[in-house]
Amino acid sequence: MENILLEKTNDTPYVRFERGYLEIEGRSIPENVHTFYQEMYNWVEEYIKNPESYTKIIVNLEYTNSSSNKYINDMLKKLGEAFDKGFDMKVFWKFEEDDDSIKQIGEDLESILNIPFKYIEYEEIRIKVEKLTIKNKDTGELSTISMRLWDTIKRNGHEDEYEVIEQESDDDYDDYDDEDFDDDFEVDEDGYPIFKDED
Q1: pTM score, two decimals?
Q2: Does domain 1-122 have CATH number 3.30.750?
Q3: N or C, which end of the chain is more exposed by having fewer CB within 10 Å?
Q4: What are phi and psi of 61, to 5 degrees?
Q5: pLDDT value, residue 147
């Protein structure tokens, strides 16, 4: 099964699903919730047939709607089927300081699930987020990516295969690194990062 790695947008979260590690972070108000989340739900259905002995699940929602909550609930319930069979799992539920509504969503989910939750409150810090527009030298395809995804490309030795077209800085929000969280991106079998398809 292939990993899922999606860059976040103004309406959809950053998503990283790989064996033993699932993360959803950002705003979740997609125009078509079913189209966005169905791939992830299908991935979870396949994953629980042969899960890792321990699975870390990170949820860090800035804003979400009820339709997104339902899909997140359904995915956690599905993961709970593996937990009930003895596979270890833990949900790390992150929320901004004093954001009681996001914390409450986590507590509501915890009340109907067997998977243990750990709540992590953080203070939001405004930073500059660097973005790049790059062009694949072979295909001519343009992609706008974050600096940390560009670092992944360079780390895997593929920097020379792309041309940097534009670099810009945007004000955005992020939070401090926590020892419970990993920042490395998963790549495909050839060492290339997985891009979200552009419309």
Answers
A1: 0.64
A2: yes
A3: C
A4: -95, 130
A5: 75
